[in-house]
Amino acid sequence: MGDFDFGTLAMIVAIGMIGPLLALPKKLRAPVVVGELAAGIAFGHSGLGLLNPDDPTFRHLADIGFALVMFLVGSHVPIRDRNLRSSVPVAALRCVLVGVAALLLAAGIEAIFQTGHMLLYAVLIASSSAALALPMIDRIGMAGPAVLSVTAQIAIADTACIVLLPLAIDPPRAGTAALGALAIAAFTLIAYFVIHYLQRKGYRKVIHRYSEQNRVALELRIALLLLFGLCWLAVSTRVSIMLAGFALGLGLSAIGQPRRLARQLFGVTEGFFGPLFFVWLGASLHLAELGEDPSLILLGLSLGAAAMLAHLAGVLTRQPAAMAVLASGQLGVPVAAAALGVDYGLMSAGEPSALILGALVTVVGTSIAANIAQRARNASAAGQTGLEEPDRSGDQSGVAKPPAAGGGPAGGLTADGSPADGEPGGAPQPDGDPQPDGGPAAAPHAGTDGAKPPEGGG
């Protein structure tokens, strides 16, 4: 492990490409994030030791990547989607049922392992991952009320658990963390109303046209200024930068971002800083500690199994079991918890690795559930084909398509979490011409998990 230089950066970028390569085989379809974590593990503390995650420069760049990743996740929450609003009551009820089940299961896990992190485990068990589950639903091509409902459920769970995580991971400092979270919320609201005012007065369009004509990426600069300002506030108040990035992303989603800005943010994040963060996190894990203490392996397996079991509570509201398991898919919240545990020393040795193991269990579970749902859908389609000749006029391929413009299961994401052509995510609006609040998005994505991203920026 030498000094952090351009050779190290080149190695990190090369290692990060393992993620997309693992996502290529159709039978494997491993989320890109999983491949990047695995690459970091192979070249970090648990593997060859070629990467030093303790290097200050590496850690700082990883923090920037973490903030940008959560920024994108927040911007992909379909706040403006009218189609989801009718599904919110049932989705909220399912989240409550899952939350109650998560508390009970977390209490049982804590009674067995005695780690002192019951509240953290409850948040992890109740969490979902839009970045993981929604692209799977999009790939299957499912649509209808069940898909809209599970999309709303995942969005609610994602938002709630990301907000609760900083409070649950360090209960003695929950009061301070709550004050910091309120400060971040206030800053985000002020930024929202200022940008909304500029949009109503037409100034945002002027800024966009000036930026485009003079090629100065002014909107991207403003977005990064707000993001890094929020991150500074978060660090100053001892709140996770995860919350800062996610909150600003929610604000951007509520306003509606131009496609050009969405492409730029996607390119900056997924092209460099996002993979760097996941490689750093993988490199910082000590998997050897799992082997030294087999109970940590059991802890990880228990957390993953508990997450799927808790989400099956949705069956009580007539939710299909496959959809319930799909909603249990986790990546963002466990990864954030592991990163916080490593950064602030809030966990015992090996516990962050156990959290990642639990998340990987849910990845396997959601993959199986997606295959089951796809077989059921194909069988249903085959039955209908046998009864009547399909209409071949127009675009009738016989494959059900997700609702367009943010109403789809992935809000416009491809199977690996990248924006589809013309749809970089977060219900983006036409360049410099945002739709009125609540209006439909201009074109047919959620998170960090495949068609290729759009040309010219993504």
UniProtKB/TrEMBL annotation:
Instruction: Please indicate if the UniProt record lists Membrane as a keyword.
Output: yes
Q: Where do the record's region annotations for Disordered lie? A: 380-458
* Gene Ontology terms describing biological process: proton transmembrane transport
Tell me where in or outside the cell this protein is found: Membrane
Record Gene3D superfamilies: 1.20.1530.20
Q: How does it sit in the membrane?
A: Multi-pass membrane protein
**What GO MF terms are annotated?**
antiporter activity
Q: Where are the transmembrane segments?
A: 6-24, 31-51, 57-79, 91-113, 119-137, 146-169, 175-195, 216-235, 241-258, 265-283, 295-316, 323-342, 354-373
Q: Alphabetically list the UniProt keywords.
A: Antiport, Ion transport, Membrane, Transmembrane, Transmembrane helix, Transport
Compositional bias of type Low complexity: which residue ranges?
419-451
The UniProt entry, under Pfam families, shows: Na_H_Exchanger
Question: What is the name attached to this protein's record?
Answer: Sodium:proton antiporter
Task: Give the species.
Answer: Mycolicibacterium brumae
